[in-house]
TrEMBL record:
Gene name linked to the record: glnD
Keyword hit for Lyase: no
PROSITE patterns linked: ACT, HD
Residues in ACT domain copies: 680-760, 785-853
Cofactor(s), names only, from the UniProt record: Mg(2+)
Name of the protein in its database record: Bifunctional uridylyltransferase/uridylyl-removing enzyme
Keywords: Hydrolase, Magnesium, Multifunctional enzyme, Nucleotidyltransferase, Repeat, Transferase
Span of domain HD: 438-559
Highest taxon above the source species: Bacteria
Activity regulation description: Uridylyltransferase (UTase) activity is inhibited by glutamine, while glutamine activates uridylyl-removing (UR) activity.
PANTHER family tied to this protein: BIFUNCTIONAL URIDYLYLTRANSFERASE/URIDYLYL-REMOVING ENZYME, BIFUNCTIONAL URIDYLYLTRANSFERASE_URIDYLYL-REMOVING ENZYME
Catalytic reactions on record: guanosine 3',5'-bis(diphosphate) + H2O = GDP + diphosphate + H(+); [protein-PII]-uridylyl-L-tyrosine + H2O = [protein-PII]-L-tyrosine + UMP + H(+); [protein-PII]-L-tyrosine + UTP = [protein-PII]-uridylyl-L-tyrosine + diphosphate
Free-text note on domains in this protein's UniProt record: Has four distinct domains: an N-terminal nucleotidyltransferase (NT) domain responsible for UTase activity, a central HD domain that encodes UR activity, and two C-terminal ACT domains that seem to have a role in glutamine sensing.
């Protein structure tokens, strides 16, 4: 058999599927591909002479067994033999498999006897599942049916054991994707609500009933008609997206990464300007995955209750209201849940009862009928006065976010209640900072706030203390609910969201004072973050201006809690100890400013002296008299802001480094905190030309990102601090820390050949955002401040610092903030004569930066 001809046949078939992708139903394409492989394998089986043997059987298993073949799917086959193969037959099968590999097919193959199949299936759930989906291709059909008979015996895998093993697999899989389908770069197969959830449902039905299709489930009355239609639609969406993605890729992958989404959306025929095609496609995806995740969970729970008899209620029924009752910690409703249709406000009552009974859960039937009722609504639940009353009551109940808000979000009740929530459901955020959609992020912000009430919560002790002391936490919760509600509509989402938050508060009969406070928090929810991360918070004018914005201690505390919850709910790594230190310092500096009066600045010189003296008093407890003299010599060279900008722990770290330094006035410290996923770098040495540029270039050469930087100098010595990370966002290993420390020390102590600056392309090409340079108004005559926003790329800071060198500018201070795929940097520069830049010099700097970036 000519392999060239086979390759041509395969290429022609692939091209035909490419050409007809949009015209032909995806399920048809999937079956066509399965049939094509069937014909290919039958021809090869005959070519190698296996058709002359009655002791061999070829079986399609896994996805191939269920005829679910996408362009890059694995071709899983099982060769069933009556006995161990002789050498000649084994050699021919090796040739058979090699030919399939040479055709670039993703072959998964096994040769086993019947006993081996049964033994391995009993030992490994994945093997058992593969064989359950087995489909006879060619050979001894009697052997195939013998296998089916064995694997359907009650003792092979009991239905209950099979279900529990599969649910355990599901829990592990969900954990890898943060237990939500609302990830911005999901996996079409394995993410929550992906095709694997549909497979799980089908596997259990196949194991128990011997059926494997949605239509058969419907015929067995295991699905409502609405659920059947919903699952069919969801499956069609994911099938089409996965098939299209496989046509786009060269290697097997199901991850819908940012750099693949635009091409796929256009291939699928989504239209619109900019990111609109992706946004529409992903909303369809999220709707499909929510349907699959919810219904697979509910149907399997119903299966456990009805078929496996797991739920046997024998306790007394306790009425909760005219509709609901509690029995054995299960909340159910009377009269087949007609209340959801007859009195839709009762939907809110169900979740209110869940907050009142922390051990209770809603019955499976309640949730299934609730979903049906929501699907029939023609108005928003917030139009009902009784629903509004109940909704606000939820906010004063214990654990209401975990017990009510998050389940309401999951099952679509929030979308049915708030018209604004519908606008953000499944709404993409086109950046690498956020890993969740807007609605999922918002729900997590509210959960983060509620977690602060937990006495064991150690995420941010200051916020925990402040939030626990609030008399009216409803205000902060509602501000969290509305902080991103206006995203995706153009204009300022903070300002537009504030208007809608105020209207919501008045509609729900909150006081004028409460409504204005909620609206203010929404409008200013980015202000504290911008101040802490993009301004020099040790500059008196910055603190004075921020204090004017917050106005009072209550607003300051509320804004800190909201800001912390917002930042820490974007992704797991964005909040760290460095940020905690930054925001804590801003909080206390502003608190002090409010106590002094908005116009009276804090005396930072006195504050620096005070901090130094307070630490000095404790030195004698740990150091000898000679060491204390050395420490004071070191401190005498430090600018006073050094004692304000560093924590006592960092100062202690620096002291140890100084005392152990081999060369006076030169030492480098690198330390990683794996728990916080944080690496800190401190450089102390004599100031020298192009120092920042040199450090930035070395870090770039070592494939290390600068996430944040703080530049301090007393005109002779530098005290530079950095937060750094590997390019994948992880902290540096102990070995990498040691290597970096040695390389930097060598760089500072030995003459080096200048680095050759190599321009690198942008890291995140899917995003198209303009570079923005903004010079800030500043009355000082000795320095110029400006913001620099652009897409991140390798060696970015090295390039910027080279431009400073080229224009003979001094870098006085910098705050480097990497936010996902973009950088929001803040620089303070001056001329070599220690003057602020003239307008002409500003324009030249802006021009050079725009030329490069």
């Amino acid at each position: 058999m000519n392999i060239t001809n086979l390759r041509q046949q395969l290429a022609a078939f692939n091209q035909s599927q490419q050409d007809t992708f949009l015209q032909v139903e995806t399920l048809t394409l999937i079956h066509q591909r399965s049939d094509f492989y069937d014909r290919l394998l039958l021809d090869l089986w005959k070519h190698f002479g296996f058709d002359q043997r009655n002791d061999l059987t070829l079986i399609a298993v896994g996805g191939y067994g269920r005829r679910e073949m996408f362009p890059l799917s694995d071709l899983d086959i099982l060769v069933l033999t009556q006995s161990t193969l002789d050498n000649d037959t084994q050699a021919r099968f090796n040739q058979f498999f090699t030919l399939l590999w040479d055709l670039k097919l993703q072959l998964g193959s096994a040769i086993r006897t019947l006993d081996e199949c049964v033994d391995m299936g009993k030992a490994e759930i994945s093997v058992a599942t593969n064989m359950l989906e087995g489909r006879f291709l060619v050979g001894n059909s009697r052997a195939f049916y013998d296998l089916l008979e064995h694997i359907h015996q009650p003792d092979f895998w009991k239905t209950d054991d099979f279900l529990q093993a599969k649910i355990a697999e599901k829990k592990q899989r969900y954990a890898r994707y943060h237990n939500t389908s609302y990830n911005l770069e999901p996996d079409l197969k394995h993410s929550p609500g992906g095709l694997r959830d549909l497979h799980l449902l089908m596997w259990v039905m196949l194991r128990h009933y011997g059926i494997y299709s949605l239509s058969e489930l419907f015929e067995q009355q295991l699905l409502f008609a609405e659920e059947y239609a919903e699952l069919q639609q969801a499956q069609a969406v994911l099938f089409k997206m996965r098939f299209g993605l496989h046509l786009q890729l060269k290697r097997y992958d199901n991850r819908l990464r940012f750099d693949r989404q635009l091409v796929l959306s256009e291939r699928l025929g989504y239209l619109g300007e900019g990111n609109k095609p992706v946004e529409t496609m992903m909303r369809d995806y999220f709707q499909a995955t929510q349907s699959i995740a919810q219904l697979s969970y509910l149907l399997l729970a119903n299966f456990e209750k009805i078929v496996l008899k797991k739920e046997k209620r024998t306790g007394e029924k306790t009425p909760l209201d005219r509709y609901f009752y509690l029995q054995d910690n299960i909340i159910s409703a009377q009269k087949n849940y007609r209340c959801f249709n007859d009195d839709p406000s009762s939907i809110l009552d169900l979740f209110y009862h869940l907050t009142q009974y922390p051990q209770a859960k809603a019955s499976v039937s309640a949730l299934r009928y609730l979903r049906l009722a929501i699907g029939k609504l023609t108005f928003s639940l917030s139009e009902l006065p009784q629903a509004r009353k109940r909704f606000i009551e939820l906010f004063s109940q214990p654990n209401f976010v975990a017990r009510a808000i998050k389940p309401m979000h999951y099952f679509g009740v929030l979308k049915a209640y708030l018209p604004q929530w519908k606008n953000i459901t499944g709404l993409m955020q086109f950046n690498m900072l956020h890993i969740y959609t807007v609605d999922e992020h918002t729900a997590r912000v509210m959960q983060t706030l509620e977690n602060l009430l937990n006495t064991n919560n150690e995420s941010y002790s200051l916020c925990s203390q402040l939030f626990n002391n609030f008399d009216d936490r409803t205000i902060i919760y509602l501000a969290a609910m509305f902080h991103d509600i206006a995203k995706g509509r153009g204009g300022s989402h903070s300002e537009n969201g504030a208007v809608e938050a105020y209207q919501f508060a008045k509609l729900h009969h909150l006081s004028e004072e409460q409504a204005k406070f909620i609206a203010w928090l929404v409008s200013e929810h980015l202000t504290m973050s911008m101040t802490a991360q993009r301004r020099d918070i040790y500059a008196p004018n910055v603190i004075i201006e921020f204090a004017k914005i917050v106005g009072n201690q209550t607003a300051l505390s509320a804004l800190l809690c909201l800001t912390f919850a917002d930042i820490s709910s974007t992704n797991k790594t964005f909040w760290n100890k460095w940020k905690e230190q930054l925001f804590t310092q801003l909080f206390y500096a502003t608190q002090s400013q409010l106590q002094r009066g908005k116009e009276k600045p804090v005396d930072y010189k006195q504050l620096g002296l005070s901090n130094r003296n307070r630490i000095s008093e404790k030195l004698s407890e740990y150091y000898t008299e000679n060491q204390i003299i050395q420490i004071n010599d070191f401190w005498d060279n430090c600018p006073l802001s050094y004692f304000i900008r560093h924590t006592p722990e960092q100062l202690e770290w620096h002291i140890q480094g100084y005392l152990e330094a081999k060369i006076p006035q030169i030492f480098v410290l690198v330390s990683s905190d794996e728990q916080q996923n944080l690496t800190q770098l401190f450089v102390h040495c004599l100031d020298m030309p192009k120092l920042f540029s040199t450090i930035a270039q070395l870090l770039s050469q070592k494939k290390i990102s600068i996430l944040e930087a703080q530049i301090l100098t007393n005109n002779r010595l530098v005290f530079d601090s950095f937060v750094i990370a590997e390019y994948n966002g992880q902290s540096l290993s102990k070995i990498r820390c040691e290597q970096l420390q040695q390389a930097l020390f060598k760089l500072l102590t030995q003459p080096q050949t200048p680095f050759k600056l190599i321009k690198k392309s942008m890291k995140f090409t899917p995003f198209n955002k303009k570079t923005i340079i903004t010079f800030l108004e500043n009355a000082r005559l000795d320095q110029t401040e400006f913001e620099f926003k652009t897409l991140d790329r390798e060696g970015l800071l090295a390039h910027i610092s080279e431009i400073f060198n080229e224009l003979n500018l001094q870098l006085l201070n910098a705050k480097i903030t990497t936010i996902g795929e973009r950088v929001d940097d803040f620089f303070v520069v001056s001329t070599q004569e220690n003057r602020a830049l003239s307008e002409e010099q500003k324009q030249r700097l802006k021009q050079r930066l725009l030329e490069e970036f």
